[in-house]
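Need residues for this backbone.
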């Protein structure tokens, strides 16, 4: 695949470790695995990661910002998720997901969404189960060890590393804003990749 067709240069992807999976692999995630290293770690297919980030961004862009909810229990993703929310106007939950906020109108924090994006289907499983009850689509970042039950669209990636999550949300921000017409073709974000990753 030609270098130009990637959203960011291949070496930027490689440096972030976005393709490095875990030693455990689920049956569903096998289709995204490129190879297994001698140390037992699975390596995800960069081309599939890239394609699916593109699809996720254009899918999200079909919705109004106020109808999208991003949920991230994993601390390594908080900074990236919060900056993504700030730049796109999309609502985010970095930290513990308050159970029932999508299903129980009696709760003070009750909120409605038309699509939910979770950073890790396992720690964010309560949110995923709520989304299933409400019957709206869910996009999830999944590592090689994730199950994909109840997930409508999987973006394969290392969803545990700060650099990996920072890069993913940096790309997602740019692609989402482009799809919304808020960033012109060839125009770059003012924020740098480093702004999305923890020091």
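Answer:
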């Amino acid at each position: 695949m030609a270098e130009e067709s990637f959203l960011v240069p291949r070496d930027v992807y490689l440096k972030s470790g976005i393709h490095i999976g875990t030693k455990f692999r689920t049956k569903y995630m096998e289709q995204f695995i490129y190879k297994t290293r001698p140390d037992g770690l699975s390596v995800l297919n960069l081309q599939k990661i890239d394609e699916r980030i593109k699809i996720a961004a254009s899918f999200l862009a079909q919705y109004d910002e106020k109808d999208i909810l991003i949920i991230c229990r994993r601390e390594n993703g908080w900074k990236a998720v919060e900056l993504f929310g700030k730049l796109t106007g999309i609502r985010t939950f970095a930290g513990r997901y308050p159970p029932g906020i999508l299903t129980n109108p009696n709760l003070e924090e009750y909120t409605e969404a038309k699509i939910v994006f979770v950073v890790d289907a396992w720690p964010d499983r309560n949110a995923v189960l709520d989304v299933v009850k409400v019957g709206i689509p869910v996009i999830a970042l999944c590592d090689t060890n994730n199950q994909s039950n109840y997930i409508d669209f999987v973006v394969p990636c290392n969803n545990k590393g700060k650099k990996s999550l920072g890069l993913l949300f940096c790309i997602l921000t740019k692609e989402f804003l482009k799809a919304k017409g808020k960033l012109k073709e060839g125009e770059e974000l003012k924020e740098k990749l480093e702004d999305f990753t923890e020091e």
